[in-house]
Amino acid sequence: MKLKTLCLFIFLFISSMALFSCASEQDKIKNAVTDYIKTNSNDPSSYEAVEWGEITEEFDNSEKRRFLMAQITGFQDEIIRVEVNNLKKDTTLYVQKRDELFEQLGELQKVGKPIGWRLTHQFRSKNAFGGLVLGQLEFVVSKDDFKVINAAVVK
Q1: Domain count along the chain
Q2: Torsion from C-alpha of 14, 19, 25, 29, nearest 10 degrees
Q3: pLDDT tens figures, 61-104
Q4: Of the residues 31, 40, 121, 140, which has the maximum number of CB atoms within 10 A of its CB?
């Protein structure tokens, strides 16, 4: 009985050490973004995080996925508009196109390779004139080395 208790204690101790000593994936992603901003800002000491967006997995074909989703949404919106307004218009073509795009999207999901994570981040920092400004950027962080591989202004 004492041996079981001792083994359980050792297991729990090692597990808790592993849990608290390793930064989570989410923390590593946020640290990469913070480091990037501080490295590329006019006054790194003025950096202040305001809001973190949702972290989503980024694939090598994510741009194509977003394009297909936008098209699907457009067709779906048109179908709903016609049906809600009782317009005398045939939606068969819209439904057919929407379904074809869903099939293409399904095929993309089978072949996409994860390359990292995408997230938006809103922050404050001083500009070149010393004024505190609010910025919002969208980042892609590499899954291999947790480095920012793309940063763009959110529109």
Answers
A1: 2
A2: -120
A3: 888 888 899 999 998 988 888 888 777 778 888 899 999 998 99
A4: 121
For residue 155, the surrounding DSSP H or E stretch is none
Structural domain contains residue 9: no
Backbone angles phi, psi at 151, to 5 degrees: -140, 135
Please report how the helices 92-111 and 62-84 are oriented relative to each other, as an axis angle in degrees rounded to 10.
Answer: 160
Asked if residue 4 is part of any domain, the answer here is no
**Which range of residues forms the domain containing residue 141?**
23-60+113-155
| pLDDT mean over 125-140 | 93
The tens digit of pLDDT for each residue in 37-51 reads: 999 999 999 999 999
Q: Tell me the sheet residues that pair with 48.
A: 124
- Same domain for 100 and 65: yes
DSSP 3-state of 147:
coil
Contact (CB, 8 A) for 150 and 142: no
**How does DSSP assign 20-66, residue by residue?**
HHSPPHHHHHHHHHHHHHHHHSS-GGG-EEEEE---EEEETTHHHHH
